[in-house]
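Hello again,

I reread your note about wanting to compare the complex against the isolated chains. To keep things tidy I'm splitting this into two emails, and this first one only covers the full assembly. Below are the input lines as submitted, including protein chains and any nucleic acid or small-molecule components. They are followed by the predicted structure of everything together. The single-chain runs will come separately.
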Amino acid sequence: MRYLDKEAIENIAIGAAFLGTGGGGDPYIGKLMALSAIEKNGPVKLYSVDEIADEDFFIPAAMMGAPSVLVEKFPRGDEFVKVFQKLAQYLGKEKIAGTYPMEAGGVNSMIPIVVAAQLGLPLIDCDGMGRAFPELQMVTFHLDGISATPMAITDEKGNIGIFETIDNKWTERLARTATVEMGASALVSLYPTTGAQMKNSGVHHIITLSEKIGEIIASKNKEVNDKLQELLNLVSGFELFQGKIVDVIRETKGGFNLGKMNLEGIDVNKDEQMKVHFQNENLLAEKNEQVVAMTPDLICLVDYETLLPVTTESLKYGKRVRVIGLPANEKWRTAKGIETAGPKYFGYDYDYEPIEEIVKKGAAEHV
Amino acid sequence: MYKIGIDVGGTNTDAILLDNNNKLIHSVKSPTSLDIKTGIETSLRNLLQDLAIDKTQISHAMLGTTQCTNAIVERKKLAKVGVIRLGYPATASVLPYTAWPQDMVDNLSGNYALVHGGYEYDGQVLSQLDENEIRSLLEGWRQEVESIAIVGVFSSIKNDQELKVRNIIQQVYGDEFPISCSSLIGSVGLIERENATILNAALCKVIETTTQGFVHALQTEGIFNAEVYLCQNDGTLMSIDYAKQFPILTIACGPTNSIRGASYLSQIKDTMVLDVGGTTSDIGVLQDGFPRESSVAVEVGDIRTNFRMPDIISVGLGGGSIVRVNDGKITVGPDSVGYKISQEALVFGGDTLTTTDIAVRLGLANIGDRSLVAHLDEAFAKDVQKEMASLLEQAIDKMKTSSEDVQLVLVGGGSIIVPESLRGVASVIKNEHGSVANAIGASIAQISGQYEQIYIYAKEPREESLKDAQNKAVKQAVLAGALPETIELVEVEETPLAYHPENATRLKVKVVGKMA
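Full-complex prediction:
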């Protein structure tokens, strides 16, 4: 067990934006909420998964909806407690042992810190994605057959709903509709889990990983190349490209931000091109017309100089970035994982190939 | 008919006179004074004393000033602000002034209230405005605030609540009370827009003094008939009345003026501009005659805001930068002898080695006494020049949008120090009046209007939405002093919103017109 203080939260927010792979919402507002919450209630306890009991019961907390709505209409502040307690009550559980992030990437890294601070509950160092994904069933618990429901959903006005659905895709459909009606931004509690389930189906040590990523990126007085190397070592990642954004093509389809960006190589990648396709998150990267990374592996864009993560909403002509690829958690690389969040699910006609193998192959071809 | 342009820089206050055809008649430089005002008066006097022109023929006077920036950075002369946020019960989890530097909050007195109001993303009411709630708040604030910032949730979609609150405040505190509405200042992103609006509200006293001072300085010199304008940071102008409503838009107008002036002098609308001053060099990019806008949230005095700013890179290299050798390694800047260059540089008989001395030694410039730098080893001078070139080359590369070599327009008083050839630069264009490009930029600026709103294309088709936004932008421009018949559309930015089922798009348009 250890405590998360202000500095830890600042670093986690940077790491979460990185693991958000362009989507998941900029954690800036979330960070301000978390900082306000611990200022009022004191620092939050962080437990590792090894420190929790199998039979204890946990509920994650998250926000659902459009990142662009969240930056304008953010919560009242007591919704988290309300929705959390509503679900506990519905489940008939007297004691909830803690909370944790559904999604490590983006704004949802911060919401459970707010809940933990407000309820005086421990936060567990685990999530259900190891990154950010756009839909509710894209969670490692889902891969192991754990139900997203019963789930509770609320807004700042005080409306509360409970869903019990026949499967997790229906949860996504119904919750999405409710979210839009609630003003395109809602608070949700779902995937109630036992300690044993978390140990078995969660992505462990993810908050600590986010914090370490943030620490490296935020560290001063270090050469950018040293920082980058440290970061790549930490996440077993690869620098795929150094380039400048020369074009961003966007469209809205089925309630998602779809698009692609064209990058023109600079420095080591001079005279080369990269295309990155995104649907909220970055999902597919092609270098010189060859696919070099694809979902569920992570494709992270960072600022060329500062290594600060770049979100898909802030992409703009002329921005200089590095494209970093990292392997997804092993759970995503199973048949069910690839079926749930692989390239074909998002409409890209490619068979999934792990990033490290593509990189190895590419290196071999250069020899 | 003549125009006067004045640019107050960190080191010099430049003044220029243009004729009817924007031809430069005369220009002067004088040191910027601590109180700004004296520097403006001196430069005006120096500009006009040698000229036999009829002062009644001076029809326009433009001022580019850093006073608002300085006031924020130095936390001086700021007004006590009351913040009214319309959004309760939403948004209570992050209150106004969260993450602000405490000394700044203390300076503005930190008054705020979260009241009922605000809209949803699709324009539905989030909660109803309560007039009594506002009125009793204002009674309580009577002795507490000198200026009010109003910010409403999704006011970029619908701002009638913000405007209604403005009316109530005027009823209670009178028509003259300074009020800033967030929907007219920043873009989507409540916290950043609120911050920008608070800063705008805090600047009401500074802008009042500045504009009065400028008008007074003009009158002292016998100029009574001129329309007076202030420069905005997007390369356009605003009338004094408009400036009083939006003082924050003067922030960073200096680099913008240089870029615009460079465009005018070189007659090029798309290029990169390097403006070398005494202490720093600013690099900006001209797109269709206007500076490229920054795409990231910008911090002003350590406060995160989202109002528009030019995309500028500053390097600590200017005509007065100090050259040193440490353990055989050459460093240039970032410190500078600044306005004391005429005493401290070697060529002027001083004892500090500056970049200007290097330029003179290498025969790039002919100022001061050449013989005073003759002892410098040529190879050494060339090494220093290489170091200077490298600083500039890195910054230029950062601003490029393609790997191709760029065309560079060189302006500013310190531009003599720039080497003839730079890596990544195809050609360098200079102009004899380049040293007063900023004042020229100030005086040739046009008048703009901008409008931003989220439109639901499923309900209001794209063409209609565009037209609506354009009409509203034109209204803004006319309010700011543009001639309606000269206004043209210069920028359209569309951003589709995530998750929205009906194709909602954030639409931002900008129009520009000639001065009325």
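For quick reference: Chain A has a mean pLDDT of 91.

B.
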